[in-house]
Amino acid sequence: MTQTLRYPKPQILAQIPLKHHAVIEASAGTGKTYTLEHLIIEIMLKPEARVGVEEILVVTYTERATSELRSRVRALLERILTTRPEDVELKPGDAFWEIDESTRLYLESQVYAFDRAPIHTIHGFCRRILSENAFYLRKLFDQTHEDSSHLFERAFHKALRTEIAVESPLKELLEHWLSRHSFEELQRGLYVVCTTPADIRPKFNLYDLERALTQLHERRDAEWQGLESLASNSVPTDFMEAQEIAMEMFKVAEDFVKGRPIPDLLVSVDHRVEGWQRLKKVNGLRNRCPALDTMLLEFPPLKAAVLQAFAPRVMAAHIREKERGFYDFDDMLTTVWERMKDPSDPTAAALIQFLRMRYKYALVDEFQDTDEVQWNIFKTLFFESPTNRLFVIGDPKQAIYGFRGADVHTYLQAKEQMAKRSPVVPLKQNFRSTPRVIQAYNAVFNQNDRNPFFDAQKISYDEPVEPGKEFLRALDKHGNDIVPFSMVRLDKGGEKIYGDDLFDSYGHYIADEILKILGDEPIFLQDEGELRRVGPSDIFVLARTRREEHRIGEVFRDRGVPFAFYKLEGLFATPEAAEVLDVLRAIDEPHLEDRRIKAWMTHFFEVDIEDLGRCRDLPETHPIFDRLIRWSELAQARDFERLFIDILDRSGIVRREIFDRHSERELTNYQHIFELLLEASHGSNTAFKDLIETLSSWVSGTKHAGDDDRDIQRLESERDAVQIMTFHKSKGLEADVVFLFGGISRNSFDEFTTLHWGHRRILHIGKPYAPKAIELARHEIAEEDRRLLYVGITRARARIVVPFASRAKDIHKFDGMMRMLNDRLISMQRSRTLNELLFEEITIFPWDENAPRVLPPRIVRQEIQLETLRAFNEDLRPKSFVISSYSRMKRFTGGYKATAADDLDGTAEPFEAEPAQIPSAWRKEEELPGGALQGVFLHQILEDLEYFSEPLGLDDWRSLPATTKVFDTNFKRYAIDPTYRNYCESIVHATLSAQIELPDSKTMPRLGQASRVLKEVEFMFPIPEGEFGLDIRPDGPFRIERGWIKGFIDLLFEYDSKIYFADWKSDTLENYSKDLLEHHVAKNYGTQASLYGLAVARMLRLHTKEEYDARFGGYLYFFLRGMNATEGVWSARPEFEDLLNYESDLVAAPIY
């Protein structure tokens, strides 16, 4: 007779009664999946009546989680069956399953049946219901699944073509929309509105709006008197603005009464609503001007009005598409719920009974990421059933996917309903972190403190976790326990700390710490005697935004820290995707000149800029034209595999990218995009134009690439590397050491904001401007940020490092999510609950480029040797082939770095300022702060804008749709505070309007008068070697021994038959007089001017003094912050002999 096996099981299972429903709350690191897999076995071995694996429905959040859970449950079953009784050692009090012979036979049968185990995502579960119950659901048996964005796009275009563009007032609204926005933006907006289950705000009600306009017109005099009664109690500027708004709105009401249509009026009011909301809050205008207030409240922004007016037509077209047999992911859920929500319907009752008979138990994982439709399905099938049972597992503290449609408020409501007749079971043991880390963050999240981190009314930390691994320790090289929580404070000697200061200094501190951990100051993890050293991949750096990810990545790249972006999104937003699209369009229509030119400008051809003009009339037999023709033949034959291979091979881009780039990021993206295009062409008779349209929609964002991971940029190598990721992506992961980076300043409101008012879900279109909406939006953002911080902190096994300010006011605009953590730490500091064994405050000072730095372990010895050699031989030549640049050269030779405003290319260098010359004192409060990011931001605006050739006033220029779009896009892209918009617009307008004194004493009315303009011009030429130079050309092929110099010129332009180059500078100076600029440029930009002058001369092939004098006009430095009629531009022109002398200096100089 087989001996009975006592197989150990988790103690927590005893707290989960199988006769009732249960809510299981699993804090971070408490073994949620481990508990879930054992709970499945517990249900299968239920003493009263065994439950087969096919009767237990398990729903997880992702396909990956589904696959992992399926593997783990099968492995657990097999482990139980292969374990011998004598191999088990139970301690007193341990829980266990008794596996006798009959139980063993039963489990064996379940292993054979396991392939039929219903472990699904929610969409997979609903898809199974749809396919097996088409009759109940009244659906076609033969249906086609399609990506939701593809299906919606088809409906959008049909509604646009057949209704919106032909019916009044819709067509007038469309005209106004297209005067300021694009079709793509309209499609994206309608997709959000039509697919988000929420009330829309601000409302667009035509009847209420007409009534409010009529009332305002009738009460005009009374409203004006009410406004004037506030004159003595108002700030003059506020009162004047209120008068301006009132006068404009009186005119709008008068126009309406005279018959002007509402769509025309929307544009007139659009820009005034936000200002009125701000003013009435300050001055109490609401009571004095009620009709004006009502009218402005009824007037939604143009975007809200257009989307609400068009949405019903698009939704109707969308429904018609679905009736033809098409469905998307969202339809799977809504269709199932719609067919079962009415229990009085016999068909619904039959469907519910069928599913309840099939599934006795349901286990729903990651339930904090549910939504109302999902909860309604599970509530109806299981919670409201007298015999079926529902177990939901989640953690509201980790509900961070609101942007994907998850709704933590639904979780809270469901928990409240279930808790009335079901236990709430917390998982309390943390098996991830060391006991000291757990002690530290238990103190941070202590719910009993006077100022707790979480709002106890909704989500709280009232069940602190306990260590699950008592012997897990983090040790330094001497065997001592490390301090688990580090707070890093930047000391600027009492000066205000700006975001750039903190990013730079804290970023380099992180680099230093990582290099120490990987070098001479290692950290070890000890677990029951086993010792493991922390490596690069055991370290996470968590950022709030993608921009912050790239910022710390740049620091790591500069410092030699091995790193990789974890699941970096935005493959189709990269320049590589745009270049592939340009090439494919040229292949499709190789005889269109503009298509060819754009393709030849990409890295696939790399035609020199000076040659582009001559390429317009190339014969088809020319190699680069012939290449397009050959590729076009492959495309028309639909031999896409050969086409894509040939593009990568024949273009030589693989070799150039490996040779020219510091990383393989760009090449990896090119290859990835072609693979996705090839995959998209399979399975259907895809035409080449369809493939181009697919890539175009991916790039524009109007379609998704299908799989959630397709827009993720692949890792360019498999090396062991520090992982940089956003807080959102870190969920479910863990690391030994975690650095929190970013989140200093508050993010601006998104294009769409989801709010909750009581139990109502609201989708707010555009920036909230009503006080209540702003309050709700900021509260929701703050609550999600708290949850993000919880997720970030609880990733750590051994150490957490965060930025810190002992006084929050020391940091300028410190209002982002890190402020909440900072306030909590200050509160703990003041109440003396920061245990010095668990918390340490580390002081750092502003990053100094010239200070000694921690070097990567592999190159420390080499660097020391190099410094020794340099001391003996300044003319040392490197043995390897190099690519140098102006930025690299001045890193060694010195150059300018503004302490308040960096050079626009982000590569400026330090300079010695007089003690009295403090840039923060020169900058006025309303002016844009300095920093590399701000410089890049201004640079991008000047690159994106078209230059006007005729005089154009500031207000007229800033109101142009093209101008508005450029500023809107870049303010959002770089997260620049909108309060600086007027300043930025004024200095850019001043730059484009300025009358320019050229080096040869000619005067240019404005930049727009240039006959030709090229922006962001890349150059690359051999480092001078002595044998050949600007004035000495080789007769034939020659070998390049020393390497290349490469760089980018901000602007090349032609005026009066001469070529000039210009560079944008955002330096903050005491003044911008010609005398000061002459000194400043000579001291800080002399090397750049000479190097770029040499580059332009080579690009234009100016090899003699006569050619040089005839074609090259000189260079101009535009100091954007100082632009006015008489100041701000410095221009000069080196003589040909000066360039030859500089070239000779380069021959003798070391290669940097």
TrEMBL record:
<dbReference type="InterPro" id="IPR011335">
    <property type="entry name" value="Restrct_endonuc-II-like"/>
</dbReference>
<dbReference type="InterPro" id="IPR000212">
    <property type="entry name" value="DNA_helicase_UvrD/REP"/>
</dbReference>
<feature type="domain" description="UvrD-like helicase C-terminal">
    <location>
        <begin position="466"/>
        <end position="732"/>
    </location>
</feature>
<dbReference type="GO" id="GO:0008854">
    <property type="term" value="F:exodeoxyribonuclease V activity"/>
</dbReference>
<dbReference type="InterPro" id="IPR011604">
    <property type="entry name" value="PDDEXK-like_dom_sf"/>
</dbReference>
<dbReference type="Pfam" id="PF13361">
    <property type="entry name" value="UvrD_C"/>
</dbReference>
<dbReference type="GO" id="GO:0003677">
    <property type="term" value="F:DNA binding"/>
</dbReference>
<keyword id="KW-0479">Metal-binding</keyword>
<feature type="binding site">
    <location>
        <begin position="26"/>
        <end position="33"/>
    </location>
    <ligand>
        <name>ATP</name>
    </ligand>
</feature>
<keyword id="KW-0378">Hydrolase</keyword>
<dbReference type="InterPro" id="IPR004586">
    <property type="entry name" value="RecB"/>
</dbReference>
<keyword id="KW-0269">Exonuclease</keyword>
<keyword id="KW-0547">Nucleotide-binding</keyword>
<dbReference type="GO" id="GO:0005829">
    <property type="term" value="C:cytosol"/>
</dbReference>
<keyword id="KW-0067">ATP-binding</keyword>
<protein>
    <recommendedName>
        <fullName>DNA 3'-5' helicase</fullName>
        <ecNumber>5.6.2.4</ecNumber>
    </recommendedName>
</protein>
<keyword id="KW-0413">Isomerase</keyword>
<keyword id="KW-0238">DNA-binding</keyword>
<dbReference type="InterPro" id="IPR014017">
    <property type="entry name" value="DNA_helicase_UvrD-like_C"/>
</dbReference>
<dbReference type="GO" id="GO:0016887">
    <property type="term" value="F:ATP hydrolysis activity"/>
</dbReference>
<dbReference type="Pfam" id="PF00580">
    <property type="entry name" value="UvrD-helicase"/>
</dbReference>
<keyword id="KW-0460">Magnesium</keyword>
<dbReference type="InterPro" id="IPR014016">
    <property type="entry name" value="UvrD-like_ATP-bd"/>
</dbReference>
<dbReference type="GO" id="GO:0046872">
    <property type="term" value="F:metal ion binding"/>
</dbReference>
<keyword id="KW-0347">Helicase</keyword>
<dbReference type="Pfam" id="PF12705">
    <property type="entry name" value="PDDEXK_1"/>
</dbReference>
<dbReference type="GO" id="GO:0043138">
    <property type="term" value="F:3'-5' DNA helicase activity"/>
</dbReference>
<dbReference type="InterPro" id="IPR027417">
    <property type="entry name" value="P-loop_NTPase"/>
</dbReference>
<dbReference type="GO" id="GO:0005524">
    <property type="term" value="F:ATP binding"/>
</dbReference>
<keyword id="KW-0227">DNA damage</keyword>
<keyword id="KW-0540">Nuclease</keyword>
<dbReference type="GO" id="GO:0000725">
    <property type="term" value="P:recombinational repair"/>
</dbReference>
<keyword id="KW-0234">DNA repair</keyword>
<dbReference type="GO" id="GO:0009338">
    <property type="term" value="C:exodeoxyribonuclease V complex"/>
</dbReference>
<dbReference type="InterPro" id="IPR038726">
    <property type="entry name" value="PDDEXK_AddAB-type"/>
</dbReference>
<feature type="domain" description="UvrD-like helicase ATP-binding">
    <location>
        <begin position="5"/>
        <end position="434"/>
    </location>
</feature>
